[in-house]
Amino acid sequence: MSSVEHNEMVEKITRGLEIAEREMLEEKAKNDEDVIVCGDDNVIRHIPAKNFL
């Protein structure tokens, strides 16, 4: 696989993940659900999905 092909594949994968994340956040926001995140301080937080959109 050439460098160009590799970069194109990485871009496609990255874009697909961005789309999937956006769809997940929209669905959670629609259902008034939280997203669970862990910050740099290792504290787990429940944040409404609407805050991410």
Relevant terms:
two-stranded antiparallel ribbon; 1 helix; 53 residues; single chain; alpha+beta
Descriptive overview:
Strand 1 and strand 2 (44-48) form a beta hairpin. The chain is built from 1 helix and 2 strands; from the N terminus they run αββ. The N and C termini lie far apart (37 Å). The protein is of the alpha+beta class and 53 residues long. The protein has a two-stranded antiparallel ribbon with strand order 1-2. The mean pLDDT is 96.
Number of strands: 2
Major β-sheet profile: 2 strands, antiparallel
Spatial ordering of strands, largest sheet: 1-2
Uncertain runs: none
Helical fraction:
40-55%
Mean pLDDT equals 96
H/E topology pattern: HEE
Structural Rg: 15 Å
Which of globular, elongated, flat, extended, rod-shaped describes the shape? elongated
State the separation between the terminal residues, measured CA to CA: 37 Å
Q: What structural class do helix, strand and pairing data support?
A: alpha+beta
Number of helices: 1
User: Percent of residues in beta strands?
Assistant: 15-25%
Spell out the blueprint of helices and strands.
Elements: H1 3-30, E1 34-38, E2 44-48
Antiparallel strand pairs: 1-2
